[in-house]
Amino acid sequence: MPIISTSKLTKRYGQLAAVSNLTLSIEEGEIFGLLGPNGAGKTTTLSMLATLRSPTSGSAKVNGYDISKQRNEVRQSIGMVFQGTSTDDLLTARENLEIHAMLYSVPSDIRKKRIDELLALVELTDRANDLVKHFSGGMKQRLQIVRGLLHHPRVLFLDEPTLGLDPQTRAHVWKYIERVAKEEKITVILTTHYMEEAESLCNRIAIIDHGKIAVLDTPTNLKKKVGSDMVKFVSNNADAKKIKSLKFVRKIEQKGDSYLIKLDEVSKNLASLLKSAGNVSSVEVRPVNLSDVFIHYTGHEMRDEEEGGGWQGWER
Amino acid sequence: MSFFEGAYAIWLRELKTYVREKERIISGLISPLIWLLGFGFGLGSSVSVSGTRYDQFIFPGILTMTVLFASMFYGIYILWDRKQDYLKAVLVAPISRSALFTGKLIGGVSEAMVEAVLLLIIGYFLGFQPTLAGAILALLVLTLISVCMTALGLLVGAKLSTPEGFQLVISILIWPLFIFSGALFPLSNLPSWLSLLTQLNPLTYGVDAVRGALIGQAAFPLYIDIAALLVFAAAVIYAGILSFGDLQQEK
Fold first, then answer.
1. Same topology between domain A4-220 and domain A228-287
2. What CATH fold (topology level) applies to the domain A4-220?
3. Chain B: residue nearest A72 by CA?
4. pLDDT, tens digit, for every residue of A4-53?
C-alpha cells in the first residue's frame, strides 16, 4: 500500500491554479522528488500534504490518514522541513529539539536519548548548547532535518533542502539525508529545482511544471526514454566500422577526425568505445541529464540559472 | 496529543525567549514610570480628584496601562516569529488550536504580570502603599485584564501579516481604550454622549476594580467589574482560537 496517495489534488487561488489534478502515489521507503522550476506548485503540493493548506478539490492520504479529515493524525505521522530556516534563534540547538519533542508528545523518558541520538546523526553534538543564532546556514539546516525526526515520523517532507547553501555544504546535507533515510527507515519526499539533487538522491522523480505532473519515473528510465548519452572525440585512426557494430552505439557522425557518437550508458561503455577509437587526442563526454528530460516533457527549459546550459553543439 | 503538554511547550518557549531579552522587561517599565513621575508627581500636589490627590488617583490607572500595553503588544511576536519563519514549524505540529492559543495567552499574561509586580514594588518606594490585601486583589484583577488584552492582541496578530501592520492597528485600538477607561480622570467628568463609549470599554471596569482594590474608590461594585471582564475575555478568546485555527490551515 502506498504511504502517500493523491487523487486529483487541486489548489486554486482565484483563477490561478497553483496545483491541478495532481494524482500520484509514493511507496514506503522511497526517496521521492518533485522537480520543477520556482512557481511550479511543488511547495503548495507539500503544504497540502502536510495539512497546512486545504485543497480546493481532490483528496490525498498520508500514512492512511485523510489530509482533510484527519489532520492531526497526518501531522503526527510526518516531519516537515521548510524552505529556508525555521529554527528559533533565541534558543539553543538542544532547546529547539526539546520544545519540539514536547509539541509532538515524545515521551519524556526517551526524550533526552532521542535528542542525543539525532544530534549525533548530524554531527551537532558539540554545539548542542549553543544558541542557534550563532549557527551557519548549513548547521541550521541539519538541525531542522533532525527536528523533523524526533517523533519517529513515517514520512519526512523536505522543501528545497539545500536552497542557498554552498556546493560543499549541499553535498554534506545530501549525505545526511541519505543517512537519515536509511537509519530511520522512513519515506522522504523532497522538492527541488536542482537537477543534480533530484538525480543523486531520488529513487523516483515527478517533474512538475505549472501545477501539473509532466512525467514520473526513475531518473534512469526518464533519461533512457528521452535520449542517449553522447561522446565526442578526435582521432586520426578510429575504426568507424568497428564502432558502428558495437551493440551499445546508436549513431555515429564523423567530420574529418571528429566523431560524435550516440550511445547507451556511457559510464559502462566508454572504455570499450575508446578501445576502437585509435589514437584519441581529445574526448568529451556528455551524458543525457534531467535537463534534457525536462525540456523533452515540458517543451521549455527550467528557466533557472543554476545548472545545465552552455552545451552548444550538443543538440540532440 | 495532550492539551496541557502542548500549551506548556508553547509557554515554556515564550518564557525562555523572554528571559533572554532583558531589554523587553526594562523597556516595558520605562513608559509607565515616566507617566507616573510626570503626570503623577507633576500634577499630584496641586490637583485633587474626587477627594484624592492626583498621584494616588492615577497610580492604579498607570498600573493598568502597563498591563494593557504589555498584553496587547505581545501579539506582535507572532508576526516576528512569522518573519523569522519559526511560526511555520509550530503551525505544522499536531497541536490543537486551543492549546496553541492557550500557551501563547499564558505566555503573554506571565510577561505582563512580571511588569505589573515590578511596578507595584517600584510604586511602593515612590509613595504608593496599598494594603497587602488590596495589592493582591489588584494583581488578580490585573491578571484578568491581561487575559482580555493579550487575547485581543493575539487575535489581531493572527489576522495580520506584518509587524508594521500590527503596530498600526494596535495603536489605533489601544489609545481610545486607555484614555476612555477612567485611568487618568474620573469618568463622571465626561458629557453623557462620551459616557456611552466608556461604558462599552472593558478596560473601564478593569481600572475601576483595580482602583477600588488599591485606594478604595470604585464607581461600580466589584462583581460587575469582574463580570464585564469575564464576558469580554470569553468573546475574545473564542474569536482568537478560531483565528489560530485559520493560521494552522490556510483555506
1. no
2. Rossmann fold (3.40.50)
3. B94
4. 999 999 999 988 999 999 999 999 999 999 999 888 999 999 999 999 99
B92: chain A residues, CB-CB within 8 Å: 50-52, 75, 80
Mean pLDDT by 10 residues, chain B (251 residues): 88 92 85 84 77 84 93 92 86 93 96 93 88 93 97 95 93 92 85 86 94 88 94 97 91 76
Instruction: Verify whether the Cβ–Cβ distance B93 to A87 is below 8 Å.
Output: no
What percent of chain A lies above the pLDDT cut of 90?
A: 59
pLDDT in tens, A131-172: 999 999 889 999 999 999 999 999 999 999 998 888 888 898
Assembly ipTM = 0.85
In the CATH hierarchy, which top-level class contains the domain A228-287?
Answer: alpha beta
Question: Distance, in angstroms, between B14 CA and closest chain A CA?
Answer: 10
* Domain segments of chain A as ranges: 4-220, 228-287
- A258 vs A271, A280, A312, B53, CA distance in Å? 18, 10, 16, 103
Nearest to B9 among A51, A89, A102 (CB): A102
Distance CA A55, CA B70 (A): 38
Question: Which of A82, A91, A104 is the closest to B16 by Cβ?
Answer: A91
What's the number of CA atoms in the CB half-sphere (13 Å) around residue A298?
25
Chain A hits for B16, Cβ within 8 Å: 90-91, 95
Nearest Cα neighbor of A219 from A33, A86, A5, A53 is A33
- The residue among A11, A89, A102 with the most chain B CBs within 10 A of its CB, best to mutate, is A102
Closest CA to B142 of B171, B125, B117: B117
**Nearest CB to A99 within list B9, B87, B249:** B9
Q: What percent of chain A has pLDDT over 70?
A: 96
Query: Does B91 contact chain A (CB < 8 Å)?
Result: yes
Query: Which chain A residues contact residue B250 at CB under 8 A?
Result: 52-54
pLDDT digits (tens, 9 = 90+) for A243-302: 888 888 888 888 888 988 888 888 888 888 888 888 999 999 988 888 888 888 887 777
Spans of all domains in chain B? 3-248
